[in-house]
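It is worth pausing here to work through a concrete case rather than discussing structure prediction in the abstract. The textbook approach is simple: state the sequence, then state the predicted structure, then interpret. We follow exactly that order.
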Amino acid sequence: MSLTPGLSQRLDKLAARHTELSAQLADPGLSGGDIARLSKEYSDLTPMVEGIAALRKAETERAELQGLLAADDAEMRDLAQGEIAQLDDKIPELEQRIKLLLLPKDEADERNAILEVRAGTGGEEAALFAAELFRMYQRYAALKGWKFELMDLSETGIGGFKEAIAAITGRGVFERLKFESGVHRVQRVPETEGSGRVHTSAATVAVLPEAEEVDIKIDDKDLRIDVFRSSGPGGQSVNTTDSAVRITHIPSGIVVSQQDEKSQHKNKAKAMKVLRARLYERERQQKMAQRAASRKSQVGSGDRSERIRTYNFPQGRVSDHRINLTLYKIDKVMMGEALDEIIDPLIAEDQAERLAAEE
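Step two, the predicted structure:
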């Protein structure tokens, strides 16, 4: 077994704790709060305990088969040798699975997310690309069975988005989308380009874990709230009342505007939701930076100024620069269908980096 003695002892303690929790949960005198707390700990430990049991079983089988290698029967020896070879492949996989389960979890992984897509350099072409990216995530959410709720949209008038914000709700949303934060670059011939030259433009994506009021305490005296009249593309008035809301968080300088709803109250509620997410993400990034100070690189740094991916339409390819991955299926990626083929390797690379840092 390649697990260290210290790690093996830790696994024994986790298995013992799982058994202890099972006995505690059988107590009829438990309060509702205790049941919820203990049940969560029990269910969190269950995959680990199942993994430990599978590893121990495989190790026991291998030890028993090892004894058969001294048998007089040549056929028996060959059979044992073949089964040992299979277990020699299986045991490291089981150990790796356990090590991954032992990694500290990002507490934000199971949260819903706020998606923000903004046009970057490249004028109207950047805004058109931002709209396509936003729709890509909308399709991906639909494929995952997630709820995708538009929160704010600033259009250019010819189909482009200057800025678009959505709330995405579902199981493990942030875990799968968190590596999408950064600069997405597009290379293609714009429809308005007569000479057929390939242009490069960009859009910025930010994926923020949704925060509850209990996560982030916001003091009313730290807020400046302005109301104004909503406007459509080109400054055209779309609302005759002062329903749009702009909230400035004075300590951080973060500004959030919402004008999608006709109700000032609803716009304020949406703006506060986005503000909480941005403040929570800022705090989370600071903690991550402290924890990762000794690591050489981070797949998911979340730096919005970092160029993470290029979409080259003439060549039909999408390249993620963090893991040197290139897919020649740009249409399927933009439809959301092949996005998992980029996200899965990003998650695997992050896990590998964190495992290396633990060793």
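Step three, interpretation. The chain is about 45% helix and 20% strand. The helical segments are 5-25, 32-68, 74-102, 123-144, 173-177, 264-291, 330-334, 340-358.
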